[in-house]
Amino acid sequence: MATRRTAKSKTPATKLFVLDTNVLMHDPTSLFRFEEHDIYVPMMTLEELDSNKKGMSEVARNARQASRTLDEIVNTCPEDIDAGINLAGPSSELASGRLFLQTELIDIKLPAALPTVKGDNQILAVVMYLFEKFERKRQVILVSKDINMRIKARALGLAAQDYFNDKVLEDTDLLYTGTQEIDSAFWEANGKDMESWKQESRTYYKLKGPATADMLINEFVYQDSEPPLQAWVKEKAGRSVTLETLTDYSHQKNNVWGITARNREQNFALNLLMNPEIDFVTLLGQAGTGKTLLTLASSLTQVLETKRYSEIIMTRVTVPVGEDIGFLPGTEEEKMAPWMGALEDNLDVLNGTTGEGGEWGRAATRDLIRSRIKVKSLNFMRGRTFINKFLIIDEAQNLTPKQMKTLITRAGPGTKVVCLGNIAQIDTPYLTEGSSGLTYVVDRFKGWPHSGHITLQRGERSRLADHAAEVL
């Protein structure tokens, strides 16, 4: 009994999280993401927010939003700021902790190797002061997106961690792949009262059982039997699901702009891309899996042959140039040209599949294709509405969840949005596989009847590229 009382008396108090500037600039709503714990904002964090607020970049917009949020919070408690400001009201009950601003002059005591002129080191000095002030009474933790800042903090004996609240998944191996393999045991367990029928060259199976409860609408199932089965979940009601067999795009008679599926996942992807009922498609996969080629082939077919969409709009993040493309010469399309090498390479492949007409025919086709593909910069997407368009977002892993929302909400009636990317190749600072906008939308859209996702597994570029992906 004595042991139990001691354990109860040592229940840890709420933690005090000290925020680095990059956390607020990455997610301005982070002030409300710490639930019952308290937040401390050093004066240097406010200074760095102020110096980063100018400009039209995403970072500058976030800095301004964070400053406005802080202003609104402070205005709710005009009297005693020293005692902390209750966040329950400003956060609409999302957080119940308190916000503390640095209101006292702190005597900076840092090792001689750390120059005090640097903003990061001044924030570390504040964390050291708070650590000594509270000693063992409460836990003081620095929250930063900067890896080196966290390493320095730990070297000084301070607790530090990454900002985790923006992460959709802790382990990207758990990310939804869009596919599920079934075997004969599946049919035995779930096919007791199975119904089966044919309709317009498609076969339907209605199943109910323990394994069907976790299936999602538009999830693909396959069985490597003889003959092989490839189907997708078209309806779901409780534990009951209806499977529909797929169009076989690996057969030449179903080719899309001369392209056929070379593997199972490519066939799944083409079924999503060619289906008019699917408004939003996400394709993940390493380089050479055919994401861009399949998407362009299906978009050209639906724009030029079936006339389902009026034109193709392609965009991608211009990470190495930063936010601005202004110094490159020419129009918006000409400025984006250096970033659209992947588009040009794939159009060369697709133009070679048209076949008839010789050199003149190919030149005419090339001009026709060019007239229907518009290349746009992300910087000018805000406020636009795309009606009846096929919108392709390439390199989507470099987008934040907020940028992704801005883009997808541009879609008007009759527009299809396709996001392509490889979460293993993120170039944007402070974004990880778990917090990428692409991971975010894959997780949020799964199970919606008008969206679908496929993770492409096999590279189809060349034996050299496949081997390089494995060994390098």
TrEMBL record:
Which GO molecular function terms does the record list? ATP binding
Q: Does the keyword RNA-binding apply?
A: no
* Entry's family note: In the N-terminal section; belongs to the PINc/VapC protein family.
ATP-binding recorded as keyword: yes
Q: Which UniProt keywords apply?
A: ATP-binding, Nucleotide-binding
Annotated protein name in UniProt? Phosphate starvation protein PhoH
Listed GO cellular component terms?
A: cytosol
Recorded source organism is Zoogloea ramigera
Gene3D superfamilies in the cross-refs: 5'-nuclease (3.40.50.1010), P-loop containing nucleotide triphosphate hydrolases (3.40.50.300)
Which intervals hold domain PIN?
15-151
